[in-house]
Design brief:
One of its GO terms (biological process) is 3-phenylpropionate catabolic process. Belongs to the bacterial ring-hydroxylating dioxygenase beta subunit family. InterPro entries: NTF2-like_dom_sf, Rng_hydr_dOase-bsu. This is 3-phenylpropionate dioxygenase. Keywords: Oxidoreductase. The structure is a single chain. The model has no long low-confidence stretch (mean pLDDT about 85). Helix content is about 20%, strand content about 40%. A 6-stranded mixed sheet has the order 2-1-6-5-4-3. It is built from 3 helices and 6 strands. The protein has one domain (about 5-160): Nuclear Transport Factor 2, Chain: A (Roll). By secondary structure, it is an alpha+beta fold.
Length: about 170
């Protein structure tokens, strides 16, 4: 197996483990997959003309995002969920995360300390009797190699909705 194929397999397995941790509600273990300086964001999409696709997502640092968090904020969200009195996550949502079309940047190599990865996601959430959310989109990640394994150093999730139709962003996508 070539080094590139081995790296591809390693990253796809990393994403499978991540999805399973989220779906099994092992949020503290998932948190360990994030670098201390992680930036985790979901920019807002807007409808634009074909000739203006570069401005489809509001991405600059001053723009509004659905989510724009670091590890500290994510840690607080997890602690709040664990209190059992989190109105949007009590009872906890049932989720299914699918990650596909995983592409490593063209010049990625097995010895790199940080690599960029693109993927597509489908995040399904169901809670209470009749609340269902479905999020489809693309992810652009920077993964950092450490002695403990890969960590998510930066994640931008481009969802395919200009208006979020779900009840809340209280679950992790």
């Amino acid at each position: 197996m070539s080094d590139m194929m081995a790296l591809q397999f390693e990253i796809e397995r990393f994403y499978a483990v991540e999805a399973n941790l989220l779906d099994e509600r092992k949020f503290e273990e998932w948190l360990d997959m994030l670098a201390d300086d992680v930036r985790y964001r979901v920019p807002i999409a807007q409808n634009v003309a074909f000739t203006d696709l570069s401005s489809e997502y509001l991405e600059d640092d001053l723009a509004m995002h659905w989510i724009d968090e670091g590890k500290e904020t994510i840690t607080h969200r997890i602690k709040q969920i664990r209190t059992g009195v989190h109105w949007a996550e009590e009872p906890l949502s049932r989720t299914a995360h699918l990650v596909t079309n995983v592409l490593l940047e063209d010049n990625a190599s097995h010895g790199d300390d940080e690599i960029r990865v693109k993927s597509h996601i489908l995040s399904y959430r169901q809670r209470l009797a009749d609340q269902e959310d479905l999020i489809v989109g693309r992810r652009h990640d920077s993964l950092r190699r450490t002695e403990a394994g890969w960590l998510i150093a930066d994640r931008t999730i481009y969802i395919n909705q200009t208006v979020y139709l779900g009840s809340s962003f209280s679950h992790f996508i």
